[in-house]
Amino acid sequence: MEGGGERDHEAEPEYHCHDFEWEDLRADVEANPSFSHHLSPFPTTAASPSPSSEAWRSFHRRHASGRFFKERRYLLKEFPDLLNNNDVAKMLEVGCGNGSTVVPILRCSRNNIVYACDCSKDTLEKANEIVNNTEGLDGKDRFHPFLLDVSKETFPDWLFCKSCQMSNAKAVDLLLDSSEHNTRKEHPVLLKENQCCVGGIDAVTMIFTLSAIPFNLMSITIQRCVSVLKPGGLVLFRDYGLYDMTMLRFSPSQRVGFREYMRADGTFSYFFTLDTMRELFHAAGLLELELEYCCVRSINRKNGKSMQRVWVHGKFQKPTR
């Protein structure tokens, strides 16, 4: 799905985390009458918007060129857990899009294995192509994309530790359906009696994914992600923060819920506060390790305008007991 994050960037800024204080931005926004439509209560009787899976599929079909790809190398600075592993580490990237998060994870350690899901076959195919063609990246046997809309579907059984206890042989195709996709053709993996399955996930990455899902589906989405984590496993989160520049650009007619907006192409965007994130992840039984706003100021190279970006950074852990 890959909610974007950088899709609205008009410049390639030098990356910082705390260029300004979020509370100062909040005061400026809430004192500005032109932004009043973002602050007013949203009618509770309003009909909830429908899930946007098809809108995201269309979005990725329109942006299938390599120019849309931007490797998110800054994530390795923000989440050093992706680097500090000497053993084989199994990662799950939820809403992988074209692989902009997958590539740096695979690149940073040869011990990282990435299972990646998305609701779009087209974008999975593109991600597979990018991973296979990235120079210096040996990801052929370490990248396993599969089709799934996490807001509507549960993860396949082979991604759970409980699969180890199955007595019947089970065919699992970790890749795209070879009858429809020709980028990689391999035999399915057979999980036989006494043979270990994937065995649980060490870390789930959710990078600009949750904001692309209607708010009423977020809790169940997080619970599904937690269900495949090993005890002690991590959820690494980054997404839009309240009063981000992108939010302030939306018109009143694009507001479809409390802090929830719909773009002209039908894709969603929700803007998080720290309290909202804390409530969602605590409700899923996770422990909070890190949670903060990342406030980044960048300059548009074309028009010289300053852009104030706000993202929420979070790291949560599944209890060991």
TrEMBL record:
Pfam families per UniProt: Methyltransf_23
Database matches in SUPFAM superfamilies: S-adenosyl-L-methionine-dependent methyltransferases
EC numbers on record: 2.1.1.-
Gene3D superfamilies assigned: Vaccinia Virus protein VP39
InterPro entries: METTL2/6/8-like, SAM-dependent_MTases_sf
Keywords tagged on the record: Methyltransferase, Transferase
Major enzyme class: transferase
MF GO annotations: RNA methyltransferase activity; S-adenosylmethionine-dependent methyltransferase activity
One biological process term in Gene Ontology: methylation
Family per similarity comment: Belongs to the methyltransferase superfamily. METL family.
Function as written in the Swiss-Prot or TrEMBL entry: S-adenosyl-L-methionine-dependent methyltransferase.
Protein name, as recorded: tRNA N(3)-methylcytidine methyltransferase
Name of the encoding gene: LOC100844642
